[in-house]
Amino acid sequence: MNLIKSYFWLRACGVIALLMLSLPQTSNAEISIFGGADYFRWTESVPGTPGVTETGPRFVVGGSLLQNKPSGILLGYRGQVRFGEVDYAGSSQNCSSTTKACTYTPLNSKTSYIDLDNYFSLRYRSPSKSGEHFIDFISGIGTDYWTRTLGSSGGGGYTETYFIGYAKAGMGLGMTGSGPHAEAGIKYPFWTNEYVGLYSAGLSTNDTVISPGKAMSYFASLEYKFKGPWNVMFSYDGYVFPGSSWVNSNHLTTAGGKTTWTQGYVGQPASAEETLALTIGYFFE
After folding, report:
1. What does the alpha-carbon distance between residue 128 and residue 225 come to, in Å, rounded to a whole number?
2. Which domain holds residue 233?
3. What CATH number corresponds to the domain at position 100?
4. Distance (Å, whole) CA 119 – CA 110
5. Contact call for residues 62 and 38 (beta carbons, < 8 A)
6. Fewest Cβ atoms closer than 10 Å to its Cβ: which of 127, 217, 258, 278?
7. What secondary structure letter does DSSP report for 215?
8. DSSP-based three-state secondary structure for 137
9. Are the beta carbons of 16 and 26 closer than 8 angstroms?
C-alpha cells in the first residue's frame, strides 16, 4: 500500500508541474534546464560497529520554473534526477553463539543510486527601494524518490527504495536581473517510507517496509546569473534520519552445509545524507 501511495505521489508531482506550465501566470516565467555533478555522502551509525559510509560523485540533470515578477507571490518548480555509482565502506559481522562477542571485517563495494526529486516553492518577494535587490521569503514542499542498490558491482546485494515527503522554509537575497543570488533555510522530512527488497534478492521470505525517523536538516545555495542566458549554481542539501523501528523478517542463513530460514529483524539505523552540487543552467527567455 505504501508503494502505491508513493506511485500516486510521483504522478501527482508530474501533473502539478504540467499544470504550472499551462497557467497564464507562468507565461512570463523563467524556465531553465541544468546539468552538472554532485559529491554525495551517506552515513549509517550503529553503536558498537564501524557503521557504513558511502561517498562519490553523481551526475545531475533537471529543469526549473519560476514566475518572473519584481514583487509579490511567486510560484516555482524544480525537478532533478541524480544518478551514479558511489564507493561503499562498511563491514561484515561475525558473532560468537556462546560469548555473543562480534568481530568486524572491513567490506568495500559499490552502491548505485537513481534519485528523482520534485520541489514546489511558494515565495514572497520584497524588492529594495531602488529595485536593484530583493529579499525572498521561501516555503515549499517536495517529494524525493530514490533507489539504493547495494553491492551493485559484483552481485550479492539488494535494493532499498526510499520515498520521502519534505518541507522547506528559508530566505533568499539577490540582485534583480544578472548577478548573485543566495538562499538558505531548514528542511524537514514529514513523511518517510523505505522498501527493503530482501525477498527480491533471495535473502528473506518477505520484502519489508519501514519508516526512517524524522529530523531537521539544512539547505543552502549560491547562484550567479550572467547577463546572457547562463547561470552557475553551487548548492548544499541533505537529510537526517534517526533510526527506524525494527520489524520482523525471516532471514536466509547457511550453516554446516544446510540452508535454513531463521527469525530476524530489519530496521534502518540512524542515517544522514549530504550533497554538494555544482550545476550550469540555461534560461529560455
Report:
1. 19
2. 2-284
3. 2.40.128.100
4. 29
5. no
6. 258
7. B
8. strand
9. no
